[in-house]
């Protein structure tokens, strides 16, 4: 009896070869992708530091956009003309949940509603702009963020202690288009307690989100990047009182500008929900390019006394210099997110 040929074995061999080729190609693509995602970042190739950086990279959330410290992620599409229109900032403080006392009473509708002395943040930033050559408009009316055309009037948008779902669908789309067109975002303090369920916004914060904090207490801020516009005029160490936010996730693929020395916190860094703190590296300010725009972030800014100018609140002048530099660099008035 004549035996039948065995095409199955040949077919299996071909499939195996093709599969192996595909896996090799896929590994190469993934390697290139990982390399591209880390562009502009120190990797320490071939060292233990490089292995640690690679492990950190694999663990970093992917928000599907170009983000990090490489300026190639920025879209310089000519949407801003400071020489013609000057520099202008929009301060947004809408709260759909807890409201920080330094924001004062909720604002009326429209742009630039009447302020009271209790609206400490608004008054302070308006004065800061006046003294440093830029205009500050303010609002808690979400319709003022409804179209990219409205936002493109501003070199930067500042979210200061917004909370929960502070944006509707139209404003979310508008903010995303504004950033993609080269806009600037500054997130201060409870901007981290905002839009929890919007992954794009979490990425805008540096791939970070608020988890909890311990009691407000005095601690020492460490400056990690003395060359950046926001930290250039600050000492290497300075004392400040704040809530010292704990974050989950912690920021990734960003340039950390400052951190808090947890050993200086008398009551420790453990939060009210059990977060143990961040150990030797507890960031409090950082910057990144994100989805075409610039983003500068700080978790500091809880206390209204942080805006005093009489020296009665230690570190108030340092904090004000920090956020001034962050705002100016984000709008392009000074260099942004400088290397150490």
From TrEMBL:
Pfam families: ThuA (PF06283). InterPro entries: Class_I_gatase-like, ThuA-like. Residues 115-310 form the ThuA-like domain. Transmembrane segments: none annotated. Gene3D superfamilies: 3.40.50.880. SUPFAM superfamilies: Class I glutamine amidotransferase-like. This is ThuA domain-containing protein. The lineage of its organism: Bacteria, Bacillati, Actinomycetota, Actinomycetes, Kitasatosporales.
């Amino acid at each position: 009896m004549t035996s039948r040929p065995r095409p199955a074995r040949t077919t299996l061999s071909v499939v195996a070869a093709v599969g192996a080729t595909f896996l090799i190609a896929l590994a190469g693509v993934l390697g290139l992708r990982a390399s591209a995602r880390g562009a502009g970042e120190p990797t320490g190739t071939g060292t233990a530091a490089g292995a640690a950086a690679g492990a950190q990279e694999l663990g970093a959330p992917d928000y599907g956009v170009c983000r990090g410290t490489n300026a190639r992620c920025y879209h310089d599409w000519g949407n801003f003309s400071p020489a013609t229109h000057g520099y202008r900032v929009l301060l947004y403080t809408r709260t759909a949940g807890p409201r920080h006392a330094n924001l004062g009473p909720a604002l009326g509708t429209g742009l630039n509603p009447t302020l009271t002395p209790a609206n400490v943040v608004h008054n302070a930033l308006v004065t800061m702009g006046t003294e440093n050559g830029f205009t500050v408009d303010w609002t808690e009316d979400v319709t003022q963020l409804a179209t990219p055309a409205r936002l493109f009037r501003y070199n930067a948008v500042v979210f200061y202690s917004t909370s929960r779902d502070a944006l509707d669908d139209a404003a979310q789309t508008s903010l995303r288009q504004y950033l993609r067109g080269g806009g600037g975002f500054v997130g201060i303090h409870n901007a981290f307690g905002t839009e929890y369920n919007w992954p794009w916004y979490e990425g805008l914060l540096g791939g970070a989100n608020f988890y909890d904090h311990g009691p407000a207490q005095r601690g020492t801020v460490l400056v990690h990047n003395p060359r950046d516009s926001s930290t250039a005029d600050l000492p290497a160490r300075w004392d400040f009182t704040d809530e010292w936010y704990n974050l989950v996730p912690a920021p990734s693929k960003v340039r950390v500008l400052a951190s808090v020395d947890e050993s200086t916190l008398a009551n420790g860094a453990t939060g009210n929900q059990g977060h143990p703190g961040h150990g030797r590296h507890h960031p409090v300010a950082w910057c990144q390019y994100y989805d075409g725009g610039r983003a500068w972030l700080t978790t500091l800014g809880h206390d209204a006394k942080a805006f005093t100018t009489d020296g009665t609140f230690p570190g108030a002048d340092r904090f004000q210099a920090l956020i001034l530099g962050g705002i100016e660099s984000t709008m392009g008035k000074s260099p942004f997110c400088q290397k150490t």
